[in-house]
């Protein structure tokens, strides 16, 4: 997507990023896209303090994608260990619901992959996805992610992650090699 511009988020972007992430995953507005979690979780997916912490973290970067000056996507990258070759965490990934399906997510992931290699020499991108999101997991698999076999508990009782609408939520860990690495 040559019409996308990428840049690193600053503290001035925090409110816009919170709005973007919320619109992509929670509430009625999220139903305009396919990434909605509205049937699994109510409440907030993130807040200003959480996004500001990512922006301020020395071992993280929040990448923004703009089209014609409008924020259309974002993702977080975080160094997971010192030294070259460790996987980088990939998260806080969101695309505006009315822009989903147009290649923005794929372009942002490609940019994130390159950033992780350039910044930290990352050998892979690693992420967590709610296990019940088969459609989302299938999309990531089409982009080279594979399940690691690791599962992590959902943080029930911590409303910073939302209010679960079912009692069987958990995360699966997905990983893919960064561009230019094998296996």
Helix and strand arrangement:
Elements: E1 4-8, H1 14-25, E2 41-42, H2 48-56, E3 60-67, E4 70-79, E5 88-95, H3 104-120, E6 124-130, H4 134-142, E7 146-153, E8 163-164, E9 170-177
Parallel strand pairs: 5-6
Antiparallel strand pairs: 1-3, 2-8, 3-4, 4-5, 6-9, 7-9
Name some characteristics of this structure.
single chain; 183 residues; alpha+beta; Aminopeptidase; seven-stranded mixed β-sheet; two-stranded antiparallel sheet; 4 helices
Description of the structure:
- The chain has 183 residues and is of the alpha+beta class.
- It has one domain: Aminopeptidase (3-Layer(aba) Sandwich), CATH 3.40.630.30.
- Helices cover 26% and strands 32% of the residues.
- The chain contains four helices and nine strands.
- A seven-stranded mixed sheet has the order 1-3-4-5-6-9-7, sandwiched between helices. A two-stranded antiparallel ribbon has the order 2-8.
- Strand 4 (70-79) and strand 5 form a beta hairpin.
- Helix 1 packs across helix 2.
Q: Would you count the extended β strands for me?
A: 9
Figure out the total of helices.
Answer: 4
What general form does the structure show? Answer: globular
Distance between the termini: 27 Å
State the domain count.
1
CATH architecture classification = 3-Layer(aba) Sandwich
Major sheet attributes: 7 strands, mixed
Organism: Kineococcus mangrovi
Protein name: GNAT family N-acetyltransferase
InterPro entries: Acyl_CoA_acyltransferase, Bact_Acetyltransf, GNAT_dom
GO molecular function, one term: acyltransferase activity
């Amino acid at each position: 997507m040559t019409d996308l511009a990428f840049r690193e988020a600053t503290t001035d972007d925090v409110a816009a990023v919170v709005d973007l992430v919320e619109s992509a995953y929670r509430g009625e507005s999220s139903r305009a896209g396919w990434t909605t979690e509205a049937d699994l979780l109510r409440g907030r997916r993130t807040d200003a303090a959480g996004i500001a912490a990512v922006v301020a973290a020395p071992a993280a970067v929040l990448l923004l994608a703009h089209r014609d000056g409008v924020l259309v996507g974002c993702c977080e990258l975080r160094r997971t260990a010192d030294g070259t070759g460790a996987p980088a965490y990939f998260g806080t990934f969101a695309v505006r619901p009315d822009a989903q399906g147009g290649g923005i997510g794929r372009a942002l992931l490609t940019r994130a992959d390159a950033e992780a290699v350039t910044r930290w020499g990352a050998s892979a991108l690693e992420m967590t996805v709610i296990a019940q999101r088969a459609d989302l997991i299938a999309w990531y698999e089409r982009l080279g992610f594979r399940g690691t076999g690791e599962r992590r508990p959902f943080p029930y009782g911590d409303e910073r992650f939302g209010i679960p609408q079912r009692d069987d939520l958990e995360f699966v860990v997905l990983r893919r090699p960064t561009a230019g690495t094998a296996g």
